[in-house]
Amino acid sequence: PLTEKMLCIADSEKPIAVAGVMGGEYSGILDDTTAVVFESACFNGASVRTTAKTLGMRTDSSARFEKGLPPQLCQIALDRACELVALLDAGDVVNGQVDEKHFDESPVTVALEPEWTNRFLGTDLTEKEMVDILTGLGFTVEGRTVTVPYFRTDVHHKADIAEEIARIHGYDVIPDSAIKGKANGKLTAVQKFERTVQQTMIAQGYSQIMTYSFISPKEYDAVGMPENDPMRTSVVIQNPLGEETSIMRTTALPSMMETLALNNSRRNDAVRLYEIAKVYRPVEGNELPDERKILMLGAYGNDADFFSVKGAIEELLIRLNLPEAEFTACHDVPAYHPGRTATLALNGQTVGIVGEIHPKVRANYGIRARVYVAQLDMQLLYANALPEKTYHPLPRYPSVTRDLAIVCDKDLPVATLKNVIVKNVGQLLEKIELFDVYQGDRIPSGKKSVAYSFTMRSDHATLSDEQCDTIVGKIIDDLKEFDAQIRS
Questions:
Q1: Phi, psi of 384 (to 5 degrees)
Q2: SS3 of 126, please?
Q3: For residue 374, which of 276, 482, 280 has the smallest C-alpha distance?
Q4: Which residues have C-beta within 8 Å of that of residue 295, sequence separation ≥ 6?
Q5: CB-neighbour burial class of residue 323 (10 A; exposed 0-12, middle 13-18, buried 19+)
Q6: Cβ neighbours of residue 153 closer than 8 Å, sequence gap 6 or more
């Protein structure tokens, strides 16, 4: 940094120089100059650099000194300058000089370690070959101590000695070798999990979006969030750019709706989007909020409906090696249509919601088409994922497939019927599939026909017709509890 000692002052009005940066006007040769004093100085490189930066003066002098110069050159340079004055008859050189030494004149020494150097470079040079290279460069080697010449201010470590040996020996003749101790960079388990999520959604036609975590408090009104909902308690930003980005979102639904609305306004007729979004939910007693990642799916247009989004989720669960999900009808989430929404549970734990957005919420965003959105907690998905896939040998015994067409109340969830079948078939169940839901002719008013196909197989013996009929009979008996019966 600039200090008083770095300013040579002839008088208060006429500074002579800034040391190592710039000479002053009155320190130069004038018309009436008869005597000249030669100064040969060496300045601290770090100090010159900061001084030049502070003054905004980048000069040839500062560029040299800030890199570091050997102070031993001062006497050599001064003697040469005086010699040139005498040789050119440019003046008379007089005797006498003042020498102010403020540096350690003892030479730098570095240990020579041939074994380490060979390991470091991947070479097999002998100690004599190393010594010959160093002495040829002006280094002095006594035993295994290398004395560095004063003009090599860049050599301080055994790695510097190795570099000198390598450049003279030749980089082109040093064999290639793997660096020992290198880090094996790889994705963490969570990163692999997220990448599988992204690849699966892209494979199903969903495009990734990235939205801001800052939203406006008005967004909660737009998605129909009740005034007393705890989700309205948000982290408030101290220095927001504006009211539109003044809080950290506790739900990513407004961000997805904004993006879908933008696409709809640009006349994009069919859109499928996904985002692994962060939400921030304050925790009482904690300074920092609970920061969670939520997988958001949004779709409208073409064949987008509740079942297409639900199917995308089921495919994702398979790819993530998650257990089969249980979907339960949901009627009390204001942002969603009360008759076309379901919660998603894994191992009895609710991990998300999927459904059609309520018409009033859709109208708030000016979207004309029906909109379907799903929200899944990434942390809970990861927690429920099975550690590895399991495979079963090819079956030794044949399977038996039965189809059941069941007539029930139209408001009865089909999952209820599926659970009855699964419970009664038990460990013999290999596969179950819903292949038809029908309302119309020959079906009483207020009823629907639901058709399931399920496959049974034993690992120990061939199933008989009597065994299968007994299982079907139990299913029919249990269906009566839900006022359901086999379609005639």
A1: -95, -5
A2: coil
A3: 276
A4: 197, 274, 275, 276, 277, 352, 374, 375, 376, 377, 378, 381
A5: exposed
A6: 68, 69, 70
pLDDT given at position 13: 54
CA atoms within 13 A on the CB side of 163: 7
Q: What is the mean pLDDT of residues 201-207?
A: 96
Please write the tens of the pLDDT for every residue from 289-300.
999 999 999 999
Q: Residue ranges of the alpha helices (H) in 223-356?
A: 253-265, 306-319
Q: How far is CA 210 from the centre of its chain?
A: 13
pLDDT score at 449: 94
Q: Which two tokens stand for residue 12?
A: 């208060």
> Which residue stretches of 31-170 are H helix?
45-55, 60-65, 73-87, 114-121, 127-136, 158-169
Residue 306 token pair: 């509740």
DSSP string, 242-279: SGGG-EE-S-SHHHHHHHHHHHHHTT-SSEEEEEEEEE
Specify the DSSP class assigned to residue 407.
Answer: E
Q: What is the DSSP string of 17-58?
A: EETTTEE-GGGS--TT------------HHHHHHHHHHHT--
Helix (H) or strand (E) holding 15: strand 14-18
Query: Rounded to whole angstroms, how far apart are CA atoms 188 and 297?
Result: 24
CA distance 426 to 34: 114
**How many residues are recorded in the chain?**
488
CB atoms inside a 10 Å sphere around CB 15: 17
pLDDT at 179 over 80: no
> 128-135: long-range contacts at Cβ-Cβ below 8 A with a sequence spacing of 24 or more?
129/169, 130/165, 133/164, 133/165, 133/168, 133/169, 134/161, 134/164, 134/165
Displacement of CA 122 from its chain's centroid (Å):
35
| 468, HSE (Cβ side, Cα atoms, 13 Å) | 18
Residue with tokens 């006429």: 14
Q: What DSSP designation does 358 have? A: P
pLDDT at 115 over 90: yes
Contacting residues for 17 by C-beta, under 8 A, at least 6 apart: 7, 8, 23, 24, 27
Residues 6 or more apart from 405 whose CB is under 8 A from it? 436, 449, 450, 451, 486, 487
CB 320 within 8 A of CB 197: yes
Beta bridge partners, 336, equal 357
